[in-house]
Amino acid sequence: MPIDHKQAYDEQNIFARILRGELPGRVVAESEHSLAIEDINPLAPIHVLVLPRGAYVSWDDFSANASDAEIADLVRLIGEAARKTGADTQGYRVLANTGKRGGQEVPHLHVHIFGGQPLGPMLSR
Ligand code: AMP
Fold first, then answer.
1. What separation in angstroms does the CA of 38 have from each of 26, 57, 120?
2. CB of 34 closer than 8 Å to CB of 51
3. C-alpha to C-alpha distances, 51 to 2, 15, 55, 123, nearest whole angstrom
4. Mean pLDDT of the chain
5. By C-alpha distance, which of 68, 76, 82, 62 is closest to 15?
6. What mean pLDDT is predicted for residues 109-120?
């Protein structure tokens, strides 16, 4: 069920638990403020999630409340993860589902990186 992106932060969400080391995650790259892990149910040959380490529910929350350092760090790690996985060689897609209409399922901001195959149109009508 998609989440309400304006909800309070839930400390028990699955990515919070991975960030605390309570659940495993396959780490692709990491930095001071961010972590990149493989998606558990990949929708493309390369499917990575980039998470801020801080407690941000959504892109909406992060863009309004994160520090410039956290925002720069996340953007840099997205690029680094794309290069590390080879997604950068032929192109890739970056996506942040946000809230109910965006189809966000986990209430901790995550940016998807898809690559490794042609990705088709952005949305189908
Ligand atoms: P979204 O619909 O944008 O909220 O995407 C949530 C993503 O999290 C989906 O692509 C899931 O496959 C992925 N996911 C859920 N649980 C895990 C997990 N334990 N480790 C890695 N990825 C996960």
1. 6, 20, 21
2. yes
3. 18, 8, 10, 24
4. 97
5. 62
6. 98
Q: Which ligand 1 atom sits closest to the C-alpha of 25?
A: 20
Percent of the chain with pLDDT over 90: 98
Kindly report the CATH class assigned to 5-115.
Answer: alpha beta
> Do residues 107 and 3 lie in contact, with contact meaning Cβ atoms separated by under 8 Å?
yes
40 CB under 6 A from ligand 1? yes
Angle at 69 between CA 25 and CA 49, to 5 degrees: 25
Where exactly are the structural domains of the chain?
5-115
Please report how many Cα atoms fall inside a 13 Å half-sphere around the Cα of residue 47, on the Cβ side.
8
The verdict on the CB of residue 98 being under 6 Å from ligand 1 is no
Query: Structure pTM?
Result: 0.98
71 class by beta-carbon count within 10 Å (0-12 exposed, 13-18 middle, 19+ buried): middle
